[in-house]
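User: Can you predict the 3D structure for this chain?
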Amino acid sequence: MEPLTEHPPTFLDILNRPLRSLRLSVTDRCNLRCQYCMPEEEYVWLPRKGILTLEEASRLVDIFAELGVTKVRLTGGEPLVRRDLSALVGMIARNPRIEDLAITTNGLLLAESAKALYDAGLHRVTVSLDTLRPDRFMALTRKDSHAKVLNGIKAAQRAGFKGLKIDSVIMRGVNDDELVDLLEFGRQIDAEVRFIEYMDVGGATHWSMEKVVSRAEMLEALTRQYGRIEPVASAGWAPADQFILPDGTVFGIVASTTTPFCRTCDRSRLTADGTWYLCLYAQRGTDLRTPLRAGASKAELISLIVSGWTKRSDRGAEERHELRFREVLVSAEGLRQDPRLEMHTRGG
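Assistant: Here is the predicted structure, written as structure tokens:
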């Protein structure tokens, strides 16, 4: 790694949002087919020769860190299908500027990977789990693998990971009757549950507003069960609003669909083939792989990134929220023409 300046500068976009958090997709492949992310029968995949090597991904992370990024989340697709992921974790973990190195996984391969990831320096794990019912899991994901996810969660805790989070996308008529069950499961395993509103991004080709369970509805249902629920004060940059139950249990809600938080979003996304997106809803990104492989200097790559961020005015979720008639963001055909628009490609 090249020498770093002692105090990285703070780069702000047009709305004064800092360049602070990077979501790094390491693959566009996934071993599940969740209804809200990959509901179609067939997909167009990124060419394998275009996928960043571990060394290329690590170099770009180092450059982002020099520009102020302190948080990196490894995503996919399903990141654990990427071979030698623990080697990449080790490369990134060696950078002293990365204060928070996390992964979001569906948990299917976590039992085999947890110890190696922990030993390599991974800080935190978030597991996506939308239901506690094996039959419902099968219907949601088209895989009979619910037990594997639960075993993966146990393995992560045995490996030493603290601060485990469970992400649950809530959909009306699908799993909105499991709010209490999921919260109790989180309490049982000492994990923070984060409920996520069904979002109309990327591969959500079956999305409709009628299927969205809002934050207000979730809080109303949970209040009926637990009594008064209080918000937890936060710094304002995290995607989830935190709440606390009367007994002290903390949970989160990501309300991007009905209560967008664009003006406090410090996240950008790098796809597995090196395309940099400034917003989950963005239709165009910046190609960092081509100049990287063409031998661009660190200064040239820095200039490209700084120029992109300081011109950023994206507020995709807010713009969608303002629409009078809100339909699916990208059609299935549009996603086949440009698979980088898939949520599983750019890492939700």
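The longest strand covers residues 100-105. The chain has a mean pLDDT of 94.
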